[in-house]
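Why does residue order matter? Because the sequence determines the fold. Keep that principle in mind as you read this record.
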Amino acid sequence: MSKFRFIDSHVHLFPEPLFHSIWKWFDEFAWPIKYKVSADEVIGLLTNLGAERLVLYNYSHKADISSSLNEWSYNLTQKYPQLIGFATAHPDDDNLSALLYTAFVDYNLYGLKIQCHVNKIPSDDERMFPIYEKIIEYDKILNIHAGTGPILRPYDFSEICGVNRFKKVVKRYPDLRCIFPHLGAEEFEEFFDLMREYKNIWTDTTMMLTGFFPHDINPERLVEFQDRILYGSDTPNIPYDLQTEINYIKKLGLGKEVEDKIFYNNAKSLFNLGPARKGEL
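Structure:
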């Protein structure tokens, strides 16, 4: 029996010092991370599991570290051709235009990751607009964690995040291709409704189809937006086995065609990786 093949559209890779800081935060405020391993080891684990391509995300939690992170990400994509590299930026970075030119032109990274929770900057803050405009100018993709969840006590992100703020962004920039992760947690239905209105919006499954969080995602919505949902694992910052979300999705009974799209073909299309593959997953 051949190995199950998939594209993981949400993998967090950081230099080791930043990884250790992130894991310390998770230990205190979120959940125990099962895979506290280096970027190289993460790539090896997922490749051995069956991942053909991996989308590399990281984010700058403060100004003026984006350039070094982007250089690190670019170098990692040169070492591992299966990586789909994304840049990061902070709205307070110096020489933002030059930074994004380097990331999008010199490094040819696929897009940009923004973490509103970490930056504590709303998606509709005017300081973000130059970033969005450059993403459109260079025909890249935005992954923006702008939803209110997952809820992590004692943090309350409802003041700076949420679908109403994000709606202002896509209304202002309807040509902005963007992915909102975690199926829009905690406003699942509202984000799905936004997807119906704006065809340039995608989402990923990251951690929401595992049984770890007490959410009942309506399978009919997954079928409705089957062409714009990506499988993402959030590795390595997860508290369960790598296979957990894959198994969970397979048990939903969505059908082979829908599964193929979520696990493989949608990512092939969005990231322009070549023609869809049929009957081989």
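The longest strand covers residues 6-12.
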